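Q: what sequence does this backbone want?
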């Protein structure tokens, strides 16, 4: 978030202000995958199932990030693969996500996995005086992954 504030909808200040107990409780309800090298966290992504009888078939893929030093080595695909596998095991039928428009690397990643754009929310994020649009994407979790050639 700190290195690329225009690529994320969450502000570093918002996350830093959360009490540790609240963060721990939130993460306990979610599925989070990370890639590490020794003690260094190189990548992370999360999956949160929607609550309620009418929405439990859906989940949100969030927080996807791979450190610059680890890019191009398949870590992003491995994280998405683990999140999609968890969605399938959990009988989640649909995974939704958002990407700041213009983040071509992320768009290509999710398209490799079969995600498709279903909308664009204009001015979804405001950073200072600048507005950023968000691309809305969806993946039918029951379909086979397409990323085998992308690693």
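A:
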């Amino acid at each position: 978030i700190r290195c690329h504030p225009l690529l994320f909808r969450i502000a570093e200040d918002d996350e830093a202000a959360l009490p540790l107990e609240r963060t721990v409780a939130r993460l306990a309800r979610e599925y989070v995958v990370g890639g590490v090298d020794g003690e260094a966290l190189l990548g992370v992504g999360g999956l949160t199932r929607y609550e309620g009888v009418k929405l439990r078939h859906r989940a949100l893929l969030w927080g996807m990030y791979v450190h610059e030093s680890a890019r191009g080595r398949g870590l992003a695909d491995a994280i998405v693969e683990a999140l999609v596998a968890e969605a399938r095991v959990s009988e989640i039928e649909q995974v939704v996500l958002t990407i700041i428009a213009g983040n071509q690397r992320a768009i290509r990643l999710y398209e490799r996995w079969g995600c498709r754009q279903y909308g664009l929310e204009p001015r979804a994020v405001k950073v200072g005086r600048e507005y950023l649009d968000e691309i809305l994407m969806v993946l039918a979790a029951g379909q086979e992954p397409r990323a085998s050639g992308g690693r």
